[in-house]
Every structure is written in structure tokens, then in C-alpha cells.
Amino acid sequence: MNKQTGLILLVVGVALLIWGISMTDSFQSKISRAFTGSPTDKTMTVLIAGGICTALGAYQLSKKGR
Length: 66
Prior knowledge:
Number of domains: 1
Shape: elongated
Helix content: over 70%
Number of helices: 3
Oligomer: single chain
Largest sheet: none
Strand content: under 5%
Structural class: mainly alpha
Number of strands: 0
Distance between the termini: 11 Å
């Protein structure tokens, strides 16, 4: 069960990272960067969530089975 959860987390995390990276090139994010110097909050949230899910999934898959 833990391996399945790890695989799901890894796939969801990678998908969120890809989506977040594509969001950084959006028009709204470019406008936000022009005025504030950083991407939108939604973009950052998606990227952080993707990183956390990817890390947790990789950890679950790397653990030794009981």
C-alpha cells in the first residue's frame, strides 16, 4: 500500500511541477513579475505543492518494505 501511495504522490507531484512551470510563462505571471519581481501566489503554491508531493512520493518509494 505504501508503494502505491508513493507512486501516486510522485506522479501528482511531477504533474504539479510541470503545471507550475508552465504557469510561470503565463501572461498574468509576467505582469506580476514586472511589478513585484516574483510570480503570482497561485504559481508559487502549485510549485511548492508539487515539490512536496514529489519529495514525499520519492521517500515512500525509497523506503525498505516490511
